[in-house]
Amino acid sequence: SSKKSDSRGALIVLEGLDRCGKTSQCSKLISYLEGSGHAVESWRFPDRNTGVGQMISSYLMNESHLDDHAIHLLFSANRWEKRSLMESKLRSGTTLIIDRYAFSGVAFSSAKGLDVEWCKAPEAGLLAPDLVLYLDISPEKAAERGGYGDERYEKLEFQQRVAQSYRTLYDATWKIVDATRSMEDVEEQLKQIVMECVLKCQEGKPFTQLWQ
Ligand code: TMP
Fold first, then answer.
1. What are residue 192's phi and psi, to 5 degrees?
2. Per-residue pLDDT reduced to its tens digit, 141-160
């Protein structure tokens, strides 16, 4: 039927502060979806494996210095270089669970003082997620979780500004999940929301694009 040919995978993004538990929850979602017979892949941004990704990685590890605007554009370019693969995966029926996306790009760069609209501009035209899951935790609580690493942004004061920036990006379509609850509780909640989205995309849901 015509319905079937529109069937596609879902683009699902997890966002949140550093140490909010996103990465663990992404892998739990992958096992869950695989276990229920869905084609699914785990992606993350920055994707440090590309040439652009290596520049980002060395910046984050304080091995290089870049102007705030320049690094912002590299993070965005890193998403653009994956855009066509992303679309073809989704069209072929694979669901993508993505650890960070354009919202991280805007939240982190605008936390440095860059203009929000300027930050959004290079992201316009990327595929819009079918679902954004925000793992909500205060910067203070996140910091208590085994502490931050040594990377550039892993400092309490900066994370507080990032939390503020995320708040200006929320819209009604985001699912805000209390990330201070137990891993199991968070996992259960995410599973339900995610499955609903996967099924909706399977029935055929048009693609939309970010910020246009
Ligand atoms: P990661 O810890 O998830 O690998 O992300 C590395 C850092 O990069 C994290 O502090 C968030 C930040 N970041 C940006 O500043 N802009 C972006 O576009 C993305 C995807 C991440």
1. -60, -50
2. 999 987 788 899 999 999 99
In the chain, pLDDT over 90 holds for what percent of residues? 92
Kindly give the distance from the C-alpha atom of residue 200 to the centroid of ligand 1, in angstroms, as a whole number. 29
Closest-CA residue, ligand 1 atom 6, reads 46
Using alpha carbons, select from 162, 159, 153, 191 the residue that is nearest to residue 175: 191
pLDDT value for 97: 98
Tell me how far apart the terminal alpha carbons of the chain are, to the nearest angstrom.
31
pLDDT in tens, 19-64: 999 999 999 999 999 999 999 999 999 999 999 999 999 999 999 9
- Take atom 4 of ligand 1 and give the residue whose Cα is closest: 46
Domain boundaries, the chain: 4-202
**Cβ of 105 less than 6 Å from ligand 1:** yes
Q: Regarding beta strands 131-136 and 40-44, do their DSSP bridges make them parallel or antiparallel, or are they unpaired?
A: unpaired
ipTM score assigned to the predicted complex:
0.99
Rounded to the nearest angstrom, the gap between the alpha carbon of residue 140 and the centroid of all alpha carbons in its chain is 21
pLDDT of residue 1: 44
What is the dotted CATH code of the domain comprising 4-202?
A: 3.40.50.300
* Residue 43, ligand 1, Cβ within 6 A: no
Distance 46 CA to ligand 1 centre (A): 6
Q: Which residues contact 94 (CB under 8 A, 6 or more apart)?
A: 9, 39, 40, 41
Backbone angles phi, psi at 15, to 5 degrees: -125, 160
